[in-house]
Specification:
The complex is a heterodimer. Chain A contains 12 helices and no strands. By secondary structure, chain A is mainly alpha-helical. In chain A, helix 4 packs parallel to helix 12, helix 5 packs antiparallel against helix 8 and helix 9 packs across helix 10. Chain B starts with a helix and ends with a helix. The chains are: A mainly alpha, B mainly alpha.
């Protein structure tokens, strides 16, 4: 086991792109945690005398239409986006693992029901359903999280079920069972560890997708509400001033892209290191 | 298939019930355009819309209407949801097809070049480029393109449909096509790499055929089969992306219709749009499955064997 971990770790280190992704994520986490110490200004303080300023010494990325410091808002926005990502991915992966495990381990009826529900969810293009649910629940970050959680668990459930089905019949599980091991023991000791690798890959790429989707919903006006500094809603707010203040439509988008890219880089590298078989399958959704 | 279809209708029907508060009151507010509605009006709407019945009866009634092609009327304008959707759909279809063309034009050449020169600088750059393409928020790309081509260079109209001419279509199609291109590039590359390992390629090389002929004639045909399947997924992607791209570029398609209905809290319209989009998505995927089996007969045997 030691040596296998070492091999994985070595492969990971050699994967330069994944390392770049990991470093960017660490940097973002640092910014999110120490936002109050890094941000030069209060992100929600309105200062109408200094509205729509271009980037300058005092405001490195300029100010928005209410005179708020764009850099500070982007820095605090890191908190918002990472929090949404972590919460939604945490919930969806937990639910997805549990349901996938049940579908794979406990026989036909329950498994069939769960997989049919997955099929039904997959009949909708994801964002469309999230948009409709978030729209029905009403604007707000929490509602966006609920909507993304409702659509997000299917990927985990499918992958975990696949892993469970392929392992369930293997000799070591059979022998554990014949030795009288309980279901709980078999699941937690033999089956769960095999799911870890694909789930980590899915979760990393899931962070990228969730952050992007949440920003998109906020951009449409459903997610973060003023004055919350959220990247998507900042872009939306900047749209009206595109001609006179193009910095409002460039920098927040750059922040979204760098964050999403970092998680995609890392996820790609992890997939190559942990589970080459998953290759090319995950990115499609 | 049947169960999935039934599930889709249940899911769509439930959307309205995700909303907090009394549906009758929401309809009243939407219809009269004011928060100030009396209890009598709400009760009248409740009775008229059949909202006093238990939920499952409401669902069956709604399903019955849907199966007869009646998706109800917009709560705001009173127009038939079906008519409105069909009126808007061609614009979205046009945009989706244009963006697919854009994405294929970008993706297939780059995918082929990457595969033939695996691990070269070109390959690495295009693979990183593909990841950037996936990570690029399409709403941001749309704004940047608008900024550059419409506001600074003045080459293209900022937004709108015009009369559906190419000029108005270029920016939305590129915006929507870029993300798709990224995925197809990766797929073309990996599938091409797979094919190039096959024996018949070695045979072709041994015959002394030129590399160009081998790639374009022998390898490409087989390498593109998996790409066909992605077209279904891609269509779903286009419908998703259309929601945002149409909103940015004021493109009068179903994506914009859906977003507008959400902000107007026009639930009949939302349900209609979501249901329709899901049906189209499922049908496209079904067609892709069928064409895939047709293109690659091995698939059928594999499925039977399972």
């Amino acid at each position: 086991m030691e040596s296998r971990l070492a091999v994985i770790f070595k492969q990971f280190l050699e994967h330069k792109i994944a390392m770049v992704g990991a470093l960017i994520i660490l940097f973002l986490a640092f910014i999110a945690i120490f936002a109050p110490y890094i941000a030069p200004h209060d992100p929600i303080e309105i200062n109408l005398k200094e509205r729509l300023l271009s980037p300058n010494g005092e405001y490195p990325l300029g100010t928005d239409n209410l005179g708020r410091c764009v850099l500070s808002r982007i820095i605090y926005g890191t908190r918002v986006s990472l929090r949404i990502g972590i919460m939604v991915v945490g919930i969806t992966s937990a639910v997805g693992i549990a349901l996938g495990m049940m579908a794979g381990y406990y026989g036909r009826t329950l498994g069939e029901i769960i997989m049919r529900i997955v099929d039904i969810m997959l009949a909708f293009p994801g964002i469309i359903l999230a948009l409709a649910i978030a729209g029905a629940l009403g604007p707000g970050l929490f509602n966006v999280m609920i909507a993304l959680a409702i659509i997000g668990w299917t990927g985990y459930a499918r992958v975990v079920r696949g892993v469970v089905l392929s392992i369930k019949e293997r000799e070591f599980v059979e022998s554990a069972r014949s030795l009288g091991a309980s279901d709980f023991y078999i699941i937690s000791r033999h089956i769960l560890p095999s799911c870890v690798a694909p789930v980590i890959v899915l979760a990393t790429l899931g962070m990228a997708n969730v952050i992007l989707a949440a920003a998109a919903l906020s951009f449409l006006g459903l997610g973060a509400q003023p004055p919350t500094p959220e990247w998507g809603s900042m872009l939306n707010g900047g749209r009206a001033f595109m001609r006179t203040a193009p910095h409002l439509t460039t920098f927040p988008g750059l922040a979204i892209m760098v964050t999403v890219l970092a998680f995609n880089f890392l996820g790609d590298g992890l997939r190559d290191a942990l589970d080459p078989r998953l290759k090319e399958k995950v990115i499609e959704r | 298939m049947f169960i999935v279809a039934l599930g889709v209708t249940i899911m769509t029907f439930s959307i309205m019930h995700f909303a907090p508060g009394d549906p009758a009151e929401m309809i009243a507010i939407a219809r009269y355009g004011t928060e100030d509605v009396s209890q009598e009006e709400i009760d009248w709407i409740r009775a008229q819309e059949g909202l006093d019945a238990p939920v499952h009866i409401q669902y069956l009634r709604w399903l019955n209407h849907v199966l007869h092609g009646d998706l109800g009327r917009s709560l705001i304008t009173g127009e038939s949801v079906l008519t409105e959707f069909l009126l808007r759909f061609p614009a979205t279809l046009k945009l989706a097809i244009a963006s697919m063309i854009v994405s294929l034009l970008i993706a297939i050449p780059i995918g082929i070049i990457s595969a033939t020169k695996q691990y070269s600088v070109t390959d690495n750059v295009s693979m990183i480029g593909a990841l950037i393409g996936v990570s690029m928020p399409n709403f941001w790309l749309g704004l940047l393109l608008m900024l550059l081509f419409s506001l600074y260079l003045g080459l293209l109209p900022v937004c709108g449909y015009g009369d559906g001419d190419i000029k108005h279509m270029i920016l939305p199609a590129i915006t929507l096509g870029t993300g798709m291109a990224a995925i197809i590039t990766r797929l073309t590359r990996s599938s091409m790499l797979e094919v190039l390992k096959q024996d018949y390629i070695t045979t072709a090389r041994a015959k002394g055929l030129r590399e160009k002929v081998i790639i374009c004639k022998h390898a490409l045909k087989n390498a593109l089969i998996p790409v066909v399947t992605v077209i279904g997924l891609q269509f779903g992607w286009a419908l998703e992306g259309a929601v945002i791209v149409e909103t940015i570029f004021a493109w009068p398609g179903v994506g914009k219709l859906l977003v507008d209905s959400i902000f107007a809290r026009d639930f009949a319209m939302i349900q209609g749009c979501v249901l329709f989009i899901a049906v189209i998505f499922v049908l496209v995927n079904l067609m892709v499955d069928i064409s895939y089996a047709y293109l690659d007969p091995r698939i059928r045997y594999e499925k039977e064997g399972r």
